[in-house]
Design a protein that fits this description.
Length: about 220
């Protein structure tokens, strides 16, 4: 396998962000307050942890499993009317990375069937296992390197929409660029700013120059 890998998060990077709207509305509609701490307790967490965060935020007497079941019911209803789309600039980013010699892998908290269905036109651009479900090992970057790709941490370039993943990338010495949601109630852009995590507002900003800068596998500062 090639030593240079780019890990592209599926929901919020490869695909448009649907989670911010659904999670915000789910919490608020069930009597909770959606703030930065609520978001931290849910986004890019294992489903069992995120479910506990939702139950706590709403004050409901739900088990984590019950909260997750109700959330996914709400999500199914939402995506029937508002299906996720491929993010603007994502196909071109994949092409730029491939042209620069990077192998591609995607990852996220849902199953590979979600990846194969929603990213169908681009699945063949990805390499090796193509997609890794990280639900049980969130954020999952260490596991992708150690257990799936068997590469040094510094050889994985990560693009994700959640600051927590950027903090883990920094800890492990991985190049990272954030792509926070534009949803007005999403707090990830602020959290990235507060923690000096590099980010872009558009995938078009991850241009050839930025990609070239990662060739030396320089850890984010």
């Amino acid at each position: 396998m090639a030593e240079k890998w780019a890990a592209i998060n599926i929901d919020g990077v490869l695909l448009t962000d649907t989670f911010s709207t659904i999670i915000h509305d789910f919490v608020v509609d069930n009597g909770g307050t959606y703030d930065e701490n609520t978001e931290r307790s849910i986004l890019s967490q294992p489903q069992s942890v995120g479910g506990a965060g939702m139950a706590r935020a709403t004050g409901k007497d739900w088990t984590p499993a019950e909260a997750i079941r109700l959330y996914f019911e709400a999500r199914a209803a939402y995506v029937r009317e508002h299906p996720p789309e491929v993010s603007a600039g994502a196909p071109e980013l994949l092409e730029r990375l491939k042209a620069a010699g990077w192998s591609l892998i995607s990852y996220g908290g849902l199953t590979i069937e979600h990846f194969e269905a929603e990213a169908a036109p681009y699945v063949d651009m990805f390499d090796g296992p193509k997609y890794v479900c990280t639900n049980l090992v969130r954020p999952g970057l260490r596991e992708i390197c150690d257990n799936v790709l068997h590469i040094p941490y510094s050889s994985l370039f990560v693009v994700d929409d959640v600051a927590r993943v950027g903090m883990e990338a920094r800890r492990l010495g991985m190049p990272f660029i954030g792509h926070p949601s534009q949803h007005p109630k999403n707090h990830q852009r602020k959290i990235m700013q507060d923690n000096a995590i590099p980010f872009v507002d558009s995938l078009w900003q991850i241009d050839d120059g930025r990609i070239e800068a990662t060739h030396g596998h320089i850890p984010v500062s």
